[in-house]
């Protein structure tokens, strides 16, 4: 198992819990709009107050993503992003931000094209803390799970509104890092989940696992983030940030930072220690 | 599982049979599987359960068979193409030139093999209580077949079609609308078949509670490759009975075009355990294997897309590369997982045929036999033209004429520089 000293994900969730607030998990697509823009955009996320960085690996056929992230994938690939560039982005990020957890999110084919061991080794060598593979369900775990576990990289699983109580143990078996609750049965960035449904789902998941539970898909505003942050251990915001990058391109960093700061402020406001942490 | 298969196949399947795939987890060797988002997994598992029950239910098979008879027009003929056979013999060495039969899938209602599968899946949708169906389509043949069965079963129907294909295939778009379907142009990616499939999956994942996805080929997450194959196996079962009645023996060779490969697997599957029957799957080589093409086995490698592990056209980073074929039905960068397996174990041979060769055969079959083949099927005819002269004159070759070519006359005219 990953030692507590080097497990940035557990450490960050624990620190947020101590602070009495949910972790802010922010998503951007690697290489969007170009690889050269990434240091500024990732630094803006951290400076704005993101706790965990979720870095999307672009794919030609992002079937689980809505238009915002699909366009980000196309912008990135269109500007020539390669897999080696993504790991270079991670290496540079890790040098600048040794303590900020970073997880890769993407699709199986780009991850596995050189074999799962190669991918897991790259993750370990560059400082990736966890991997979310959208189209490898527990039934196909053998494709990627064993290699990641051997490299001490968390395999982060998804639970959805269609994951019923009978199926949940299969999802949790082999899950680590945190559990990602997909709040809507759908694609990224489209519909918003009803708060009551999110609260009920999070309660069920937390009863079934000790892993932190983060909620994503359709979280677009500081108000929504705050509401979800009152019940979940983490809140994932993706498409809304990606839209800002889509609008502002290589000048997006300051806008990203402001938006993330607003999200973080809303989560801080949930904290009973808000006065102290704000000072 | 031999006992479970009996309702849908004529003979019991032994466990060492090539017809016993996929395994319990939906794999054909290392191919197939269930690579979908978690949201879809429970539905995929339910579909598998419902399909297993349906296969054991004689009433399901009876209704399927009756619709194939009275609505689709089955059995369709196995036709001896005498003039094509003789024309090839004329240029072949003495004693060479196999006897060529055509399996006339193009005579089905809606003009292709696609309807066989759509009837079967619509019956499954009804069994699962789903009132809405969706489908992806390239040239529009699967879209038309899906819209047709949706009309027949009184189901709401949405067809996802690349915006480029909507523009290229206006007659089929109008047909689908006449049949009551909504045609949704897909503007993402390359705006062709693979993007239509992406958007159909996106719609499905957002509407799993009331929507059934009628996948058009023997691909996608398990159990689709298996159930599409089973529904299309009527092609091979009829061929087997018909050739026994006509010739008193099995054919020496079967030839079928392969995009996703549902017509081919439907013809091949009932013959897989007959070692004396050679099988050729014909891939679209487009401008040639060194140019733009759609030959996933000849020019691709194993990867994961659209729910299954199979051969894919992709670059070194696993990004999917765009396919090309003059035939919109073959213009897809993947292939059904059972074909990938049959290729790897060597049971089926796969050969590439270029746009140019298919165009020549399209015209040749029209002129010699009075049958205008779909461009997809013309690929198989072209392959037969190459192979028949190398076989003895007493050998028998069956070509799957998977669809009719009326939909392709504009494409062919344009390729030949004719204005219509």
Describe the model.
The complex is a heterodimer of chains A (279) and B (420). With 279 residues, chain A is of the alpha/beta class. Chain A contains 13 helices and nine strands. A nine-stranded parallel β-sheet of chain A has the order 5-4-3-2-1-9-8-7-6. The N terminus of chain A is likely disordered. Chain B is an alpha/beta fold and 420 residues long. Chain B is built from 17 helices and 14 strands. In chain B, the strands form three sheets. In chain B, strands 3-4-14-9-10-13 form a six-stranded mixed β-sheet, sandwiched between helices. In chain B, strand 11 and strand 12 form a beta hairpin. The longest helix of chain B has 15 residues. Chain B is globular. The termini of chain B are far apart. At the A-B interface, helix 3, helix 5 and strand 6 of A face strand 2, helix 2, helix 9 and strand 11 of B.
Structure, briefly:
The complex is a heterodimer of chains A (279) and B (420). Chain A has 279 residues and is an alpha/beta fold.
Describe the secondary-structure layout.
The complex is a heterodimer of chains A (about 280) and B (about 425).
Chain A: H1 8-19, E1 23-29, H2 38-48, E2 52-56, H3 67-78, H4 83-96, E3 102-106, H5 108-112, H6 116-126, E4 130-133, H7 145-150, E5 154-155, E6 157-159, H8 168-172, E7 179-182, H9 195-208, E8 213-216, H10 222-229, E9 234-237, H11 239-248, H12 253-268, H13 274-278
Parallel strand pairs in A: 1-2, 1-9, 2-3, 3-4, 4-5, 6-7, 7-8, 8-9
Helix pairs in contact in A: 2-12, 3-11, 4-6, 10-12, 11-12
Chain B: H1 2-5, E1 27-28, E2 31-35, H2 41-55, H3 58-72, E3 78-80, H4 82-90, E4 99-103, H5 114-127, E5 132-137, H6 141-153, E6 156-162, H7 163-168, H8 170-178, E7 182-186, H9 193-206, E8 211-213, H10 224-232, H11 234-247, E9 253-257, H12 262-268, E10 278-286, H13 296-299, E11 301-305, E12 307-312, H14 337-345, E13 349-354, H15 355-369, H16 375-387, E14 396-400, H17 409-415
Parallel strand pairs in B: 4-14, 5-6, 5-8, 6-7, 9-10, 9-14, 10-13
Antiparallel strand pairs in B: 1-2, 2-12, 3-4, 11-12
Helix pairs in contact in B: 3-5, 4-15, 5-6, 5-10, 6-8, 10-12, 11-12, 15-16
């Amino acid at each position: 198992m990953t030692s507590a000293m080097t497990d940035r994900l557990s450490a960050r969730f624990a620190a947020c819990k101590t602070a009495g607030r949910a972790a802010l998990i922010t998503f951007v697509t690697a290489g969007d709009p170009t690889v050269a823009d990434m240091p500024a955009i990732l630094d803006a996320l951290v400076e704005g107050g993101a706790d965990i960085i979720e870095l999307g690996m672009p794919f030609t056929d992002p079937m689980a993503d809505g238009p915002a992230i699909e366009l980000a994938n196309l912008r990135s690939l269109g500007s020539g992003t390669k897999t080696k560039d993504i790991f270079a982005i991670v290496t540079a990020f890790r040098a600048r931000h040794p303590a900020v957890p970073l997880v890769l999110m993407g699709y199986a084919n780009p991850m596995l094209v050189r074999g799962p061991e190669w991918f897991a080794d790259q993750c370990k060598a560059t400082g990736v803390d966890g991997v979310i593979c959208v189209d490898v369900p527990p039934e196909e775990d053998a494709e990627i799970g064993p290699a990641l576990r051997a490299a001490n990289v968390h395999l982060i699983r998804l639970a959805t509104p269609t994951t019923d109580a009978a199926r949940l143990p299969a999802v949790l078996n082999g899950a680590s890092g945190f559990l990602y609750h997909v709040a809507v049965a759908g694609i990224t960035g489209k519909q918003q989940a009803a708060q009551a449904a999110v609260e009920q789902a999070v309660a069920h998941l937390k009863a079934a696992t000790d892993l932190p539970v983060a909620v994503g898909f359709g979280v677009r505003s500081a108000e929504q983030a705050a509401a979800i942050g009152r019940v979940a251990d983490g809140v994932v915001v993706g498409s809304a940030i990606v839209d800002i990058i889509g609008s502002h391109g290589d000048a997006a960093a300051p806008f990203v930072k402001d938006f993330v700061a607003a999200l973080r402020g809303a989560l801080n406001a949930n904290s009973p220690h808000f006065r102290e942490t704000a000072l | 599982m031999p006992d479970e298969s009996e309702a849908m196949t004529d003979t019991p399947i032994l466990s060492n049979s090539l017809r016993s795939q996929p395994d319990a987890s939906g794999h054909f060797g290392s191919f197939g599987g269930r690579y979908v988002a978690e949201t879809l997994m429970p539905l995929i598992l339910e579909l598998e359960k419902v399909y297993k029950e349906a296969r054991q239910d004689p009433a399901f098979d009876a209704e399927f068979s009756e619709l194939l008879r009275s609505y689709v027009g089955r059995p369709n003929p196995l036709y001896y193409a005498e003039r094509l056979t003789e024309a090839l013999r004329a240029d072949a060495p003495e004693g060479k030139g196999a006897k060529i039969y055509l399996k006339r899938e193009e005579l089905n209602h809606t003009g292709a093999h696609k309807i066989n599968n759509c009837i079967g899946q619509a019956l499954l949708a009804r069994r699962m209580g789903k009132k809405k169906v969706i489908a992806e389509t390239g040239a529009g043949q699967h879209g038309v077949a899906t819209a047709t069965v949706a009309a027949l079963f009184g189901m709401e129907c949405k067809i996802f079609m690349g915006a480029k294909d909507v523009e290229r295939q206006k007659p089929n778009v109008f047909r689908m609308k006449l049949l009551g379907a909504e045609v949704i142009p897909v503007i993402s990616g390359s705006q062709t078949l693979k993007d239509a499939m992406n958007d159909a999956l996106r719609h499905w994942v957002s509407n799993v509670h009331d929507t059934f996805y009628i996948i058009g080929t023997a691909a996608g997450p398990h159990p689709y490759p298996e159930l599409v194959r089973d529904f299309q196996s009527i092609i091979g079962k009829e061929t087997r009975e018909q050739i026994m009645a006509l010739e008193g023996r099995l054919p020496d060779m079967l030839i079928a075009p392969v995009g996703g490969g549902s017509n081919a697997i439907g013809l091949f599957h009932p013959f897989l355990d007959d070692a004396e029957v050679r099988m050729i799957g014909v891939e679209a080589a487009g401008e040639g294997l060194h140019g733009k093409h759609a030959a996933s086995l000849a020019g691709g490698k194993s990867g994961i897309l659209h729910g299954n592990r199979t051969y894919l056209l992709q670059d070194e980073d696993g990004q999917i590369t765009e396919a090309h074929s003059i035939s919109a039905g073959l213009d897809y960068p993947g292939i059904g997982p059972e074909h990938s397996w049959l290729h790897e174990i060597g049971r089926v041979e796969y050969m590439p045929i270029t746009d140019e060769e298919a165009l020549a055969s399209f015209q040749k079959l029209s002129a010699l036999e009075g049958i205008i083949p779909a461009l997809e099927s013309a690929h198989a005819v072209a392959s037969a033209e190459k192979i028949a002269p190398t076989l003895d004159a007493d050998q028998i070759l069956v070509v799957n004429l998977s669809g009719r070519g009326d939909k392709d006359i504009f494409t062919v005219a344009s390729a030949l520089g004719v204005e219509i």
